[in-house]
């Protein structure tokens, strides 16, 4: 099957009967109110083709997918200095575990578990007020997606702020080890707001295209990062992008990807395409059940697995 | 640089001044006696070209690299049933840690940490005497490498048998959870012997070629595994092949790989080539220091990283 | 040696040459400024005799010793209901470890590790403003010591408030599991202030006398708790009163005791006496080095070990 | 109530209706075949009185209670040198956990968890054949109980030998850290056999009397250990004698004690008496359900809690 629109459509069709499966994230109250019967796909190729199916233009809370973009920003600010504060290894633990943080003296295992992303937010915050840092992140994502309408869902941000005790614990725990330079509430303000950014599959696939395309955005022509940095971010996504289900995603799908508890997944086929899948129901690892299944089918039908055809 | 022989030679030359760096494995007495000043590279392409440099024809103890081949055998025997007994996630711990095993009730995180490979050996042993199972593994590797001279180094096997208390602990611990079907000493007999197989870089690159080539051995023309299985083994190698340094290897090199404490590394560039690097000195994660550096350079110069050019 | 004043004096004399040994607590800045060359002892018998030696009338920060008094208050408020929220087992971990808290879903192991004492403060806070709860604790201790001059050292309280990130983490972590009913900053306000209460050895020995005397204060004649409750608080002190050095204290001294990082220790000889020792230098477990040594000698010379003569 | 025979009888009567409660140990097959409807009590005072009730003369498998006697022997052999190999702190973990052992590099937390008792057996074994060491332990216990009929239940010993994979793991794990001087199978031979010693409540209370009586056996007049050593063994029993239920036992009963999965408990009232309780059904911590309840009542009615009346 070589026509990509056909592939995207066939994946959607083959899974349409399962729409609504999985379990909504319930620890962020606002996310628990989302209609579970939604499913969207979008695919942007490195030569600028866009293919969508289903609810590809409905906005959803990107949650942890935003960590890919804040990591990109933080690397732009301090480069490899980031790795003094955050590791690059899979965690072997749940996304919000604090055990590892105690054993490794406040250094999070990687930038995609919560603690690591909070440290990344601390880097993005440097020299700014929280409001400015949040603004910078939103502007960066708008630039990547070439879409000025992308915005924060403030109900979601507020919902997290009120219930995110575990993240408050993680931030203060890191601070007790000297691995946080700003007050925890400022850093978490940045963190909760970038997690609350709302995007559609189309916008997300567009925004991630620089990772598929050696660091450049082929639609705008602009360079976002070096090809080496794009490659390394992809490596981090593959190793750590799905929490304690990262191995399973690599095994089944074979593409670098980053999921969010809002039900979205951004996957990268290096040299080929950026792909966004979304459906709110989650599997036992907290990753989109239908989104994972869609990417598995899509990788099979395109032969895009990085591990061979 | 497009001539692969030139690439292999240039990598060797650029690192030649560092030969001898790193630390020999010392917990297996026989390995501590190896001359550290050795360094070899071999690369087999999917169209059958072979390129070598340095000590590419010197045999060394493949140690944990053998786990790739026993995994292939065990999947051939019981297929996905294996995943009831062994997980597919990175461990986030040292290669011989027992902590994870207690927390997850005797199920090892993946087939490449010691506990997982012991469970795999238990599968290969089913219906056989230990001697027969060891023979089957050796025959399989000879077939893959098309070389009947490959053999076990019995001094190394004996060296491990006498000192491998930690592995005896792991095996009995799994058995206490019912995740070992044969007596621990039988399973460890198989395990210690397959780890003690000696191969050269040339033989190893040849033996791994099926993983680069959709499951078929292009030199002999035979099919070893399905293309899907080759892909999935590659995924496991990338996620878990370098113990607690897997993330770092993915970040720097970007190829599925499996290291052994004998100083060897087998790396796979899917659709391109199988590559073996060897130098006995290890880095702090227990992976070949020069071997890792060689593969990093080689991936850069060939553009073969699975994460993009 | 039967004259208790002679015992107290001899213990002081035998250790006087070591005054200044140990390491000041440095994680609370205000405590790091204390003169380390101080050493005091006070002993109150159940029949109302008081014996002191050295700096027995110098006030110091009682820190975690205050947890004995807040535990007594919390048990008075909700009785055995407390044990739904806090365990009664030794922790096998450092005093501020968060690992156990994750494994046991937010329930601290005992009321004397930081997390447990924070949960106890949450109980004392119920129905009050933080200021009122703090006032109640101070009044209770003044009543126990029969001394209205006992007060909070606000410099110390402020010093902890500014640096207590680890405790903020613990509190929020418990709150994420639903094991904290009030805002973390309110509970920690109570916690930091009761830890900052300043007392002399004389006052402390007097205040703890109810635990030696079946729950009654023999000096005032009043009943504080039932004899059964006094006995059980003593059991908790013996099992958990010295963090990860509790076993060592039981082995060497053989008396229920509670230490604080200010260098104080309150020890109870049931049916005999309440004893306070203080010297700011700490041993590797964070307990007063000279205080521990003094209590070991005193237990030997009086034969008061609960484990036999 | 001052007549001790009345106390013992009343405790038995008050619990008789609950005989059979609890769960038999099932991980040692031979123990799972014991009749659960048995309950015995025996109490020896330091002045040589013996009081019993119920099945006080029925032999049962003392299991971990034997660790008190092997600890006494090992201290006799190498004194405080033992504490280089074994700690003295509660474990905060299950009796057969291996996690702590990895974190603390092969040094068990205390001599009463399995790993610690295996290290103790290694000390007793020094200079002997396993058979001789076992013989020495049996002779020592016969001497303590003044009863030559005490013997090993070889069916139980065999039952453990065949299924004790977890203990094999612990022993080899310690050996991998250099904390075992003899082959694991020799040490475990000693360990499994001393755990399989069978004794009645009457014999056990008699054997433990030296701990209640300052190290001397008042019935025979002989000195077993110094008074200081008896005191310290009592401290260890209180802190660590009931695995992860030690805190609960101290809180409820308030006496040093050591339990075994055969349903027996030896408790010491220093200066007063040695007490043995036995009933095979266990509570959730693996300690005798009725035995614990009996000792709680007995401590209440005698006022013998070490924590006050």
TrEMBL record, chains A, B, C, D:
Q: Does the keyword DNA damage apply?
A: no
Residues that bind substrate: 64, 114, 160, 167, 191, 243, 261
Q: Which Gene3D superfamilies match?
A: DD-peptidase/beta-lactamase superfamily
- Asked if the record carries the keyword Acetylation, the reply is yes
Listed A to Z, the keywords are: Acetylation, Hydrolase
Q: What is its EC number?
A: 3.5.1.2
Set out the biological process GO terms recorded for this chain's protein: glutamate biosynthetic process; L-glutamine catabolic process
Give any GO molecular function from the UniProt entry: glutaminase activity
Q: Which reaction does it catalyse?
A: L-glutamine + H2O = L-glutamate + NH4(+)
Question: Into which EC class is this enzyme placed?
Answer: hydrolase
What SUPFAM superfamilies does this protein's entry cite?
beta-lactamase/transpeptidase-like
Q: Which family does it belong to?
A: Belongs to the glutaminase family.
- Give the quaternary structure: Homotetramer.
Name of the protein described by the UniProt record: Glutaminase
Q: Which gene encodes it?
A: glsA
């Amino acid at each position: 099957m070589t026509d990509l629109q056909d592939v995207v459509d066939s994946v959607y069709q083959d899974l349409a009967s399962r729409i609504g499966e999985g379990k909504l994230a319930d620890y962020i109250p606002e996310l628990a109110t989302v209609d579970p019967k939604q499913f969207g796909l979008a695919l942007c190729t490195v030569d600028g083709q866009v293919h969508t199916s289903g609810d590809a233009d409905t906005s959803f809370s990107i949650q942890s997918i935003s960590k890919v973009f804040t990591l990109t920003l933080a690397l732009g600010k301090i480069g490899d200095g980031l790795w003094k504060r955050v590791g690059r290894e899979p965690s072997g633990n749940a996304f919000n575990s604090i055990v590892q943080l105690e054993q490794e003296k406040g250094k999070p295992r990687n930038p995609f578990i919560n603690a690591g992303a909070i440290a990344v937010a601390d880097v993005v915050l440097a020299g700014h007020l929280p409001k400015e840092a949040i603004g910078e992140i939103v502007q960066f994502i708008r630039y990547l997606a070439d879409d000025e309408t992308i915005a924060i869902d403030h109900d979601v941000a507020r919902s997290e702020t009120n219930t995110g005790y575990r993240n408050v614990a993680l931030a203060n725990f890191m601070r007790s080890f000297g691995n946080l330079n700003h007050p925890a509430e400022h850093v978490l303000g940045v963190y909760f707001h970038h997690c609350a950014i709302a995007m559609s599959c189309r916008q997300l696939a567009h925004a991630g295209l620089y990772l598929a395309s050696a660091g450049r955005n082929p639609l705008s022509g602009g360079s976002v990062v070096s090809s080496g940095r794009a490659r390394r971010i992809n490596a981090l996504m593959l190793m750590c992008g799905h929490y304690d289900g990262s191995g399973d995603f690599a095994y089944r799908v074979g593409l670098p990807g980053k999921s969010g508890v809002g039900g979205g997944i951004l996957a990268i086929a290096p040299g080929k395409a950026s792909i966004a899948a979304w459906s709110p129901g989650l599997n036992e690892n907290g990753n989109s059940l239908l989104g994972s299944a869609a990417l598995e089918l899509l990788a099979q039908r395109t032969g895009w697995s990085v591990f061979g055809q």
